[in-house]
Amino acid sequence: MDKQAGAWSKCGMTQTHDTDAGTAKKLDPTAEAILSFLRSVPPNKPVSPEHVAKEIANGKTKPGEKPSPNLWRRYFQSVKDQARHLARTGRIEITRRGKVCDPDDLKGVWRMRLPHSD
């Protein structure tokens, strides 16, 4: 096991990427949440990272308990990091002003969507 994989497993997360053998390693829970949320919205509808972070935060609260209004901010950086990863691997597109943009140049207002199926 390499050092990075060991670090991921120590914090309870799994690193994910497709291998040449055609098998896929398990996705990070935040990446799974992003993909799940994008699949639940109408096709080609862009979603803000704040919406995904808020959904994750709502899922972490106890039943019947109202989430803290700023709890989503804890998950925002993870959503941003995993969105970059998913965009680099082609699983999602990151857009700014309706156009696909470079995932390594995230600043300002941006959205995520599933890739167009042409």
* Percent strand: 5-15%
* Helix/strand structural class: mainly alpha
Number of strands: 3
* Sequence of secondary-structure elements: HHHHEEE
Largest sheet: 3 strands, antiparallel
Q: Indicate the radius of gyration in whole angstroms.
A: 15 Å
Widest sheet: strand ordering: 2-1-3
SS summary, helix count? 4
Instruction: Give the termini distance in whole angstroms.
Output: 39 Å
Please describe the topology of this protein.
Elements: H1 3-10, H2 29-40, H3 49-60, H4 73-88, E1 93-96, E2 99-100, E3 111-113
Antiparallel strand pairs: 1-2, 1-3
Helix pairs in contact: 3-4
What can you tell me about this protein's structure?
With 118 residues, the chain is mainly alpha-helical. Helix content is 41%, strand content 8%. It has helices at 3-10, 29-40, 49-60, 73-88; strands at 93-96, 99-100, 111-113. Strands 2-1-3 form a 3-stranded antiparallel beta sheet, covered by helices on one side. A hairpin with a 2-residue loop joins β1 (93-96) and β2 (99-100). α3 (49-60) packs across α4. The model is unreliable at 1-23 (pLDDT under 50).
